[in-house]
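Running this now, will post back.
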Amino acid sequence: MTNDILQDNLYWNLLQVSMRAKHSLIRLAEQDDLTIMQLYTLCSMEKGQPMSMNSISCILSCDASNVTGIVERLFTQHLIVREESLKDRRLKMITLTPQGEVLRDKILAELQAHESSTLDSLSQAQKQQLLVLVQTALQAPVAVKK
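Update: finished.
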């Protein structure tokens, strides 16, 4: 009974697709000696655009202390630089290094080329439709429960 209910639950099915994608991302990250959170951080950054550690914390939905560890490992791998904000010295800004930009581009190209076997059964038109639907769902504000 429970499986029948879950099979027809949209959110549960999205979670299942998400878990499969996460496992693929973990394998992709491991190829470059990264954690999935480091990979996600690199992919979230824009070339030549400093990003605050607070922004990364919001993107990753994790505590600032976790971001400090992620950023420290990326810094040690020479993929980012850390600097004080010119506007507010209390803020730490991170920027991709040239090496970080190359790795980010490589990962993004692999993500573009990578298509989970989960999506193999969809036509190109269905994939495009799914993309539009997911992008629409992601535009909804995230509710934060305290």
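The longest strand covers residues 80-84. More later if anyone needs it.
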